[in-house]
């Protein structure tokens, strides 16, 4: 598996380039899906927050790609937030490239509404242990990455789930949260301009 990086000049073409901020929510705490996300309503006894399950997963893409999401650590603890893994597999007979390599496996992606963020598990972030609310922006490089996959090869990322657009005294918000991204498939890894196909794919997490 080979990763290619293309640096972008001027304005970025990527929604994930620059900084992933931790916005605050305007309005009442009741605007959060399923509850207000405060520690009194979202923490299960003995854990650092609600348990995470998959509420729904989109059908397989109409492309020779396999996409899979797995919950690897369903509950937050004082040591780590909930954890997931996402993989994209080349189900075709020829080598391909996919992009953007980070977004394709949901790195640095917000849920609809901006209440949650998925970040690479090997990073260090400014977040409250046990609560796992981001307290400052997360920086990313301004580049477009692609990864080359041979037939049957997978591109995988281990992810952690953080509260992002919640109030200062809130933690991981309960309720359903939808994540969606764009995966671009390039038929010729050596010539990305030779043709591409795109698919929108996503899943919904339930925190309760």
How would you characterize the overall build of this protein?
The protein is mainly β and 208 residues long. It has one domain. It has 2 helices and 13 strands. A hairpin with a 5-residue loop joins strand 7 and strand 8 (116-120). It is elongated and about 50 Å long. Mean pLDDT is 83; it is low at 7-47.
What descriptive keywords fit this protein?
208 residues, mainly beta, six-stranded antiparallel β-sheet, five-stranded antiparallel β-sheet
List the helices and strands and how they pair.
Blueprint: E1 2-7, E2 18-20, H1 39-42, E3 52-57, E4 65-73, E5 83-90, E6 96-99, H2 101-104, E7 109-110, E8 116-120, E9 138-140, E10 143-149, E11 154-163, E12 175-186, E13 196-207
Antiparallel strand pairs: 1-10, 2-9, 3-13, 4-5, 5-11, 6-10, 6-12, 7-8, 8-11, 12-13
């Amino acid at each position: 598996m080979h990763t290619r990086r293309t640096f972008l000049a001027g304005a970025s073409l990527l929604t994930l380039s620059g900084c992933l901020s931790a916005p605050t929510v305007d309005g009442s705490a009741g605007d959060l899906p399923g509850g207000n996300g405060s520690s009194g309503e979202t923490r299960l006894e003995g854990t650092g927050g609600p348990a995470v399950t998959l509420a729904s997963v989109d059908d397989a893409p109409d492309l020779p790609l396999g996409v899979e999401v797995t919950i690897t650590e369903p509950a937050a603890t004082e040591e780590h937030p909930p954890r997931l893994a996402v993989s994209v597999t080349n189900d075709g007979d020829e080598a391909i490239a996919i992009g953007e390599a980070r977004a394709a496996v949901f790195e640095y992606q917000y849920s609809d509404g901006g209440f949650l963020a998925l970040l690479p598990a090997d990073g260090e972030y400014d977040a409250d242990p046990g609560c796992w609310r981001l307290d400052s922006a997360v920086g990313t490089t301004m580049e477009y990455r692609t990864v080359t996959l041979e037939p049957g090869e997978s591109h995988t990322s281990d992810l952690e789930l953080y509260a992002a657009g919640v109030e200062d005294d809130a933690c991981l918000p309960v309720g359903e949260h939808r994540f969606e991204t764009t995966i671009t498939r390039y038929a010729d890894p050596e010539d990305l301009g030779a043709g591409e196909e795109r698919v929108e794919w996503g899943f919904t997490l339930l925190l309760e």
